Amino acid sequence: MYYNDDTTIYFDGKFMKAKDAGTDLYGQSLHYGYSVFEGIKSYKTDHGTRIFKAKEHYERLKRSAELMHIPFDYSVDQLTDLTYELLERNGFTDAYIRPLVTCSPNMSLSKGQKSYLSLLAWEWNNGYLADKMKIMTSPFQRPNPKAFKVEAKVGGHYVNSILACQDAKDKGYDEALVLDENGNVAESSGANIFYEKDGVLFTPAKGSILPGITRQTVMEICNELDIPVKETFFKPEEMRGADAGFFCGTAAEIVALDSLDDVPFTRNWEDTASGRVQQAYLKLVRVLSL
Ligand code: PMP
After folding, report:
1. Is 20 inside a domain boundary?
2. CA 278 to chain centre
3. Angle between helices 54-67 and 76-90 (to 10 degrees)
4. Is 153 a catalytic residue?
5. Which residues of the chain have pLDDT under 70?
6. pLDDT score recorded for residue 213
7. Among 66, 79, 97, 245, which residue's CB has the most CB atoms within a 10 Å radius?
8. Would 268 be classed as within a structural domain?
9. Residue 127: what pLDDT?
10. What's the pLDDT tens digit per position in 5-14?
11. By residue range, what is the domain housing residue 119?
């Protein structure tokens, strides 16, 4: 599904076939989740294939490595150039790109000694808007910021995401709404969240979330469209039954929410500020005017 015999990847300094790549069973990342990664998308635009917010994603990758004490020397420009070359070698336009930085063999709990960069990509044609999501408040909490560098995109953090997401699916929902250690709304397993009340958008303040690049883009769009946004801490009770809500992330783009804990969002999506933001985002990724 992710690759076939012809797929090219970039690994440890060279392009090669995905089927010929391997990993070291003694690597620190495999054993301890000690890796950093990104999730990026490219789109077919009027100006050819464009990687959306490449600079922001690669700056975050470098920052994640730094926060985790993983040595990583690639520059943002090098990473961007390599990614365009990867897309070209595979003939991809609309694609999902997964840069991953893993560490060399080391079974001790000391910092990474050497790292390897992998750049993987696969075709991704949404082509349609995802169905509205029914979500539930998760019994799992986000990783505590005193235990993890939550603003870094680290492999091991996603064990928490898998537990929360699978639990919600097992209970018949599409996704989990995960709270922080104080019971405030944080995010979903892999996207940030906004809700709307009386024309104002609310989103959790930074602290226990991955500060998403899409979240930032949404705030920039709101600024352009004169839609007020508040970054604040709030409980799920404040969101339930609000006018509208959505998840946002590179992969999810902007997905409308149907209900939280079986309580529906009340307004017709097309008539909300959130709906306007969604339209603006879908346009932006294809024209890149911001
Ligand atoms: N939160 C989590 C936990 C995520 O995994 C993601 C996806 N990277 C996001 C939020 C959204 O981030 P972005 O908009 O940068 O993709």
Report:
1. yes
2. 16
3. 120
4. yes
5. 127-129, 288-290
6. 98
7. 245
8. yes
9. 52
10. 999 999 999 9
11. 8-123
Distance from the CA of 136 to the center of ligand 1, in angstroms?
18
Dist CA 101 CA 161 (whole Å)? 19
Mutate to test the pocket of ligand 1, among 53, 57, 214 (most ligand atoms within 8 A of CB): 214
Alpha-carbon gap, residue 122 to 39, rounded angstroms: 11
Q: Residues 41, 153, 171, 230: which is the catalytic one?
A: 153
Cβ neighbours of 155 (radius 10 Å): 18
Q: What is the amino acid identity at position 130?
A: A
Indicate the number of domains in the chain. Answer: 2
Q: How far is the CA of 248 from the centre of ligand 1 (A)?
A: 8
Supply the pLDDT for residue 99: 98
pLDDT digits (tens, 9 = 90+) for 173-228: 999 999 999 999 999 999 999 999 999 999 999 999 999 999 999 999 999 999 99
Same domain as 280, residue 158: yes
